[in-house]
Specification:
The structure holds two protein chains of two kinds.
Chain A (H helix, E strand, L loop, with lengths): L20 H5 L8 E2 L2 E2 L1 E2 L10 H14 L9 H21 L7 E4 L2 H16 L5 E5 L8 H10 L2 E5 L9 H7 L4 E7 L11 H10 L4 E4 L3 H4 L4 H4 L3 E5 L10 E5 L1 H6 L10 E4 L4 E3 L13 H16 L2 H20 L4 E4 L8 E6 L4 H9 L3 E2 L1 E3 L4 H6 L5 E5 L6 H17 L2
Chain B lengths: L1 H6 L2 H8 L12 E7 L4 E10 L2 E10 L2 H14 L4 H15 L28 H15 L5 E3 L2
Parallel strand pairs in B: 1-4
Antiparallel strand pairs in B: 1-2, 2-3
The chains are: A alpha/beta, B alpha+beta.
Chain lengths: 422, 150
């Protein structure tokens, strides 16, 4: 795994020749368009990533040639759609290196994955006085479901603090883990700060006390090779749309033993094995957690995105992204009055920053005039903004199809921002 | 850059750098808070009502150039006005910033507030320009809760 060390000079390591950014850019049709008369510079990948042609074609082909409901009919198309849908599950299993396909639950996205665990695991395992442990750098989607659970159960939400660089305080974590802790829910890679958390030792620490760990992998899955067995995490959630796949599809991985013991999340079709008005017998996993017609096309499209990614040399992609992030951090730091929020030793994909005296929202509008898409605001992480004493930040988030030329364009547009505000 | 110059006019940048009436008002008898969750902008508005007019006004908070300048210029334009007059100005202001950018428009009755015409080229920024005004309505109606643009 290649990591960013912001305090060190730029890595002399060049991106492997196995990765040609100009060639992969051709796979993403939207990168050819213009915005406000300028070539699109898309630096909002942490919000959602663009889709390669093969994903778009797969969705198109599914609806033109294969569309049908799954696990329902005996007819040809239903069998075909079911086969494609279950093949998608296998693709995700391989992608995460999960032990079994039944450990892969299709959901709408990371948010729904976390809500599923809060609602189902939480309902049966969390009681009054128990504690859920999260961190100070969580996205709202890994805060609010736990707050709702704690409120309902009379449980307590504990928060691992972070230091000024935006790194977890592991010394505090050690103290916060207790016999009352029922679950640790932690972001793998922070969307607001770009901090890559040392999840492996944290999981070990929690497991020594018998506490399961959920990882929010929304940002990590697109940037790092994730191996759930090597991590030994108990739950892992990610979104398809941030992984170059369609919106509306995501994945919750859970260890089979845990998922089997959990009550259903939603009731409906597919999740049952028999229903009478007296009693319903629930289906086995994963179907127990997939009530209703799933997003079949989305799952098939996600599999296409995974196949696309897997066909790239992922080590080379990681090395390239690492190099690009270092280049961007270095270039932005040259701008007088610019402060990077989140300077962890280990980072990936995201640079949050503020410009002295200029509100991020104004930055966003002005760079947009140059065709540059960045995110401005609190990034659904208001507690992080409060921690750093800023109301909002501007955020450039990278994908492997971004180039150094695009970073240069961002830097020059930021100089324009400063001109406007004189 | 021409659209940008329309949006970020000198008057607006001046008010952003030196917001007028930027202070809490201890004698205030009406107060409201506005919040734009999209960008985290916050404005706290204080009114001193006397004899049916807005005798004094102050505001505090954090926000982008458009929301800060809009709040600042609003405080100048409503001082000495009745609630009905202030609401009439807001109505005209809102009509201006939400008007069709392709249509000729002039609103001399808005006075200096006309510099916000450029906002109509940037629909996502309309909320920034109107946050303080929505907060004003809440304060005039005596609502205590935080007003959200969402």
């Amino acid at each position: 795994m290649s990591l960013i060390t912001e305090t060190r000079p730029r890595s002399p390591r060049k991106a492997s020749p196995a990765f040609d950014v100009w060639k992969v850019r051709e796979d993403f049709p939207i990168l050819r368009r213009e915005v406000n008369g300028k070539p699109l510079v898309y630096l909002d990948n942490a919000a959602t990533a663009q889709k390669p042609q093969v994903v778009i074609d797969t969705l198109d082909r599914f609806y033109r040639e294969e569309n049908s409901n799954v696990h329902r009919g005996v007819h040809f198309l239903s069998q075909l759609a079911t086969e494609e849908y279950e093949k998608a599950r296998l693709a995700v299993q391989r992608f995460l290196n999960a032990a079994e396909p039944r450990e892969i639950i299709f959901v709408r996205g990371t948010t729904e994955g976390i809500n599923l665990v809060a609602s189902s695991f939480g309902r049966s395992n969390v009681h009054a006085g128990d504690e859920i442990l999260i961190s100070a750098m969580e996205h709202h989607s890994n805060i609010v479901p736990w707050q709702m659970l704690c409120e309902e159960k009379g449980a307590v939400l504990r928060v691992i603090p972070i230091n000024d660089a935006g790194e977890l305080r592991l010394d505090e974590l050690e103290k916060l883990l207790s016999s009352k802790t029922r679950l640790v829910a932690l972001v793998h890679l922070s969307n607001a700060l770009g901090t890559l958390n040392p999840v492996r030792p944290i999981i070990e620490m929690a497991h020594r006390r018998g506490i399961p760990v959920l990882l929010d992998g929304a940002q990590a899955a697109p940037h790092l090779k994730v191996d759930v067995r090597e991590l030994d995490c108990d739950f892992y959630a990610f979104s398809g749309h941030k992984l170059y796949g369609p919106t509306g599809i995501g994945v919750l991985y859970g260890k089979a033993a845990l998922l089997e013991a959990m009550p259903p999340y939603q009731g409906g079709g597919e999740m049952i094995s028999s229903v009478t008005f007296e009693k319903t017998t629930y289906n086995t996993i994963p179907n127990k957690f997939e009530a209703g017609t799933p997003h079949v096309a989305g799952a098939v499209g996600l599999a296409a995105a995974i196949d696309y990614l897997s066909a790239l040399d992922r080590d080379a992609v990681e090395a390239y992204e690492h190099d690009l992030l270092s280049y961007a951090a270095e270039a932005l730091r040259q701008i007088a009055g610019l402060r990077i929020i989140g300077t962890a030793r280990e980072k990936a994909g995201v640079i949050s920053f503020v410009l002295e005296g200029i509100h991020p929202h104004d930055i966003g509008t002005i760079v947009d005039q140059e065709g540059i898409a960045i995110r401005t605001g609190h990034h659904c992480a208001q507690p992080v903004m409060d921690r750093f004493g800023v109301p909002a930040t501007a955020r450039a988030s990278l994908a492997f199809y971004n180039t150094k030329e695009e970073i240069d364009a961002l830097v020059s547009s930021l100089h324009k921002v400063k001109e406007v505000f004189g | 850059m021409s659209d940008l110059r329309d949006l970020y006019q000198q008057v607006i940048l001046d008010h952003q750098k030196k917001p007028r009436n930027f202070r809490a008002l201890p004698i205030a008898n009406r107060q409201a808070e506005g919040f734009n969750p999209l960008c985290g902008d916050k404005v706290q508005l204080f009114l001193k009502m006397e004899n049916g007019v807005i005798q004094d006004v102050g505001f505090q908070g954090t926000g982008c150039a458009i929301s800060t300048a809009s709040a600042s210029m609003m405080t100048e334009s409503i001082k000495g006005k009745t609630p009905a007059e202030a609401q009439a100005i807001f109505k005209k202001f809102q009509d201006l910033v939400t008007s069709d950018p392709h249509q000729e428009i002039s609103a001399p009755e808005l006075g200096k507030l006309e510099v916000f015409t450029g906002v109509r080229e940037f629909p996502v920024r309309v909320k920034c320009a109107t946050l303080a005004w929505h907060t004003l309505l809440a304060a005039l109606q005596g609502e205590e809760k935080t007003i959200s643009t969402e």
